[in-house]
Amino acid sequence: MKKFGWRFLGFVASLALMPAILLTCVQWRVSSMDYFREEYAKYDVLERVDMEMDDLLYLTEEMMAYLYDKREELQVTVPIGGEELPFFSEKEIRHMVDVKNLFSAGMDIRNGCLVFTLAAVIVMFAKKKGRTFLRTLQAGIGVFFAACGLLVALMLTDFNKYFTQFHLIFFDNDDWILDERVDRLINIVPEGFFSDTAFWIGGVFLGVCLLLFVGAEIILRLWGRKYLTEEKNGSVEIH
């Protein structure tokens, strides 16, 4: 493969790694019951839905089990205002079916991106194109940094506007439009919850990418100092 081909492979693999990292951050955040506990307390969710924290966290665990396809039915009966009641309305159940499909697709994309990136890295290092991959990794991170920076800037100007655009893009019905007066789901995950979650995920994602960028730079410099010498000196060159 010519030099351009290796660079192209490395750049595509680097770009594929970015959504894999981002979606892993999403999975990490929504799998933490401690995070949900903090957010529920922050937004007075217990009062909004008339539930105890332990019962609400149980509901959350079951909801996440549904998203991970570990239970077939979403509906959960929990104590609400002293009565055992089903938590979700029919509209909320329909919406969560769409959310589950989107979540599953995201995890499939994440896994596919990871497999592709790993395969590309193995091939490139086996062919002594490690330096090429690290350089294209830095380029890929730079492109994603620019895109994420633009997205964050837009979200800071009007989170609700772009939150709505997200739903219009990924959902083909209006089941996501919930009324906090009658729908309990919107009361346990209000807009503030989503904005907190989005900015946390974005911050961790950017932090991980920055570490990868710096790590790649350090490795490139170490290779340059210790291992990359002129071919006439008889040393092994890692391209």
Automatic annotation (TrEMBL):
Q: What NCBIfam families has UniProt attached to this entry?
A: integ_TIGR01906 (TIGR01906)
**TM stretches of this protein:** 133-156, 199-223
Q: Name one Pfam family in it.
A: Lit
Which organism was this protein described from?
Anaerotignum lactatifermentans DSM 14214
Record protein name field: Integral membrane protein TIGR01906
Alphabetized InterPro entries for the sequence = Lit
Q: Which UniProt keywords apply?
A: Membrane, Transmembrane, Transmembrane helix
